[in-house]
Amino acid sequence: MSATLGTLIKQVQPDWSIEIFESRNSVATESTNAWNNAGTGHAALCELNYMPEGADGSLSPDKAIDINEQFQLSRQWWSTLVKKGILNDPLPSSTRPLT
Ligand SMILES: Cc1cc2nc3c(=O)[nH]c(=O)nc-3n(C[C@H](O)[C@H](O)[C@H](O)COP(=O)(O)OP(=O)(O)OC[C@H]3O[C@@H](n4cnc5c(N)ncnc54)[C@H](O)[C@@H]3O)c2cc1C
């Protein structure tokens, strides 16, 4: 989260100098470490807790839609960073789907 926030601030205030301090020996060893979370994308396409059942048995998709919109915004953010060369392209051209 700190890396994301720092990158975001740097885009709107490129002249700012930002320092991030990590209390552990290396970064991303807590929740972000791949072995410390479930590894899903939280796109709200299959998580039932984002589509609660009302007392009358009805299902409301509002929260799932809201979460999915946030997920799509995250994807746009990451692809913008790839286009700007700030992030490495996660898909080598040999594995890129045909369009
Ligand atoms: C069991 C579990 C399963 C999950 N499953 C999923 C999932 O499937 N999909 C998903 O999208 N999300 C999942 N999440 C949530 C996701 O992993 C976290 O929301 C995300 O990794 C949080 O990132 P972060 O950078 O905010 O926190 P972290 O990755 O925890 O980073 C916080 C950092 O701050 C450092 N720190 C703490 N205190 C200080 C201090 N005082 N000074 C300096 N540094 C400090 C820590 O050492 C750590 O490196 C899961 C979380 C858990 C716990």
Description:
The protein has 99 residues and is mainly alpha-helical. It folds into two domains: 39 residues, no CATH class; 60 residues, no CATH class. 33% of the residues lie in helices and 0% in strands. The chain is extended. The mean pLDDT is 90. The structure holds flavin-adenine dinucleotide.
Number of domains as seen in the coordinates: 2
Low-confidence stretches: none
Structural class: mainly alpha
Please summarize the sheet with the most strands. none
Briefly characterize the structure.
Helices cover 33% and strands 0% of the residues.
Brief descriptors of the model:
binds flavin-adenine dinucleotide, 99 residues, 2 helices, 2 domains, mainly alpha, 0% strand
Chart the SSEs and their pairings.
Layout: H1 2-12, H2 62-83
